[in-house]
Amino acid sequence: MSSVRGPMPWASLMPTGGVEPTAQSILEWIHAGAVALGMGSKLITPELVKNQNWKEIEDRIRATLALIEAAKKSKQAK
Can you give the pTM of this predicted structure? Predict the structure, then answer.
């Protein structure tokens, strides 16, 4: 992120590879300057969809959104 933002500080970046739905991963990406995060099968696995486990998908999304909010607040506090 810093190698791209260095010469282009106006760029808004949204990483989509290597983003894990964990507090550590989200915190690192947000603190590195990501304005949004893309997560696919690491957040919503094919098995959850196949089994139509909508409640688990909803729970994972809500938990991940809470982690993103916490990371943003922690960045603002710096």
Answer: 0.86
